[in-house]
Amino acid sequence: MSLNNKLQKLPPLVFKSHHPRSNKVVTLELPIINGGMGVGVTGPTLAAAVTNAGGGGILTGVALGYPFQKILKKYVGEKPYQANKMALNYWIHDAKEKSNNRFVGVNLMVVVHDFKDLAYTSAKAGVDLIIAGAGLPMALPDIVSDFPDTMIAPIISSAKAARVMVKKWLNKKRPPDAIIYESVHHSGGHQGAVVKDILSGKHQPEEVIGETRKILDDNDLSDVPVIAAGGVWFKDDIIKYMSWGAQGVQMASRFLITKECGHEFGGIKLFKKLYKSNVVPTILEHSPAGLPGRAVPTPFSSRFSYENEKIIPEPHECAAVCLSSCDKKNSIYCILYHLTETLRDNYEEGLFFAGTNVGRPDLDKTELTVEELMKRLAVGESNPAIVQVV
Questions:
Q1: Which residues partner with 104 through β-bridges?
Q2: Which residues constitute the domain of residue 160?
Q3: N or C, which end of the chain is more exposed by having fewer CB within 10 Å?
């Protein structure tokens, strides 16, 4: 890290509701939110810790009922969608309590059947921000229209998607309160581009961030932050993305290897061990969500790598009818089952989504508390292998 970057103070991140009946403004001390990692990876313990350390804590809010029923033995008698709502409602209130009723966000997938119910449940429970991706959340402003203080943000991976979302939501008289940009070349999990575009290098971060910032500014939305995700590990990365036009960053992989992450499911020890092993993630051809993915190569995920000449579907039952994009009779595998197996530390059957930084041996992957990590990000790390938190 250069001396100038080390001395540079990170600016706060400001969220402002653009609902016509709201004056809500939330200011985070640090321009950092955590990524919403499913299923059940980013729970209330992590989200509250991020908020308490000056950032913005984000819960994963998708298909929580299944791991709650199968692992935690909660809501066992409930139908899948009802269990999803009950688990999400519980997590939001738990995170709010752990963070003294401060900022809590939720990350949702547009392609789940119960997206509308989950978004409405989140807003009713008092969540501050709903981030929605894996599809363009066209209907989100309508779903949460009765909750002026619930802010909303789409996830985009290209300038074209940003342009579409801004236009569509402006037509609804409800501009976005933030835009989350996830780099298809760096981020883990589902990717908002086809494999061909990823391999060709299209949609580079500097280009998409700059164009998205311009789209917002040209529509008199200069107060809407662009939050960039993918490849963020150090303070230098944050400053770099800000120099390209972002106002904040979303970090997933580095928050996964904190002591608080996965607490609700026993600490996800194998997940963290795999992240520390410096194995280069593989790109999955596509998942039942209809999108490519990026994950740690394991016996399961390797069978669905884009490098395979022929991908053979595996026999499976439909656990909870979760994805609207999934043809359960012809789907290649049950993603909900395999994501839940990561919570069980199942190497053979787990789907361990990961960003590209996980494959880099030059990065310090010491397991820290969230508070320690946020202090490091704030002050910078000139020598991350030996730096002391002050």
A1: 57
A2: 3-267+363-379
A3: C
Residue 25: how many CB atoms within 10 A of its CB? 11
Question: How many structural domains does the chain have?
Answer: 1
- Does 38 map to a domain? yes
Q: Report yes or no on 22 lying in a domain.
A: yes
- pLDDT bracket for residue 3 (50, 70, 90): low
Write down how long the chain is.
Answer: 390
Find the mean pLDDT for residues 173-185: 95
State the CB neighbour count (10 A cutoff) for residue 207. Answer: 13
Residue 389 placed within a domain = no
- CA-to-CA distance for 26 and 309, rounded, in angstroms? 49
Residue matched to tokens 């949702």: 108
C-alpha distance from residue 90 to each of 149, 164, 211, 264 (Å): 20, 34, 38, 12
> How distant, in Å, are the alpha carbons of 35, 220, 225 from that of 130?
12, 22, 14
What is the chain's Cα-based Rg?
19
Quick check: is 288 in a domain?
A: no
Distance, CA of 182 to chain centre: 9
Following DSSP, what letter does each residue of 293-357 receive, concatenated? EEE---TTGGGGBTT-SSPPP-----SS--BTT--TTT-S--HHHHHHHHHTT-TTT---B--GG
Segment 22-42, tens digit of pLDDT: 999 999 999 999 999 989 999
At residue 348's C-alpha, the angle toward residues 346 and 352, to 5°, is 65
Burial class (CB in 10 A: 0-12, 13-18, 19+), 10: buried
d(CA 129, CA 93): 14
Q: What gap in Å lies between CA 65 and CA 80, rounded to an integer?
A: 6
CATH number of the structural domain spanning residue 185: 3.20.20.70
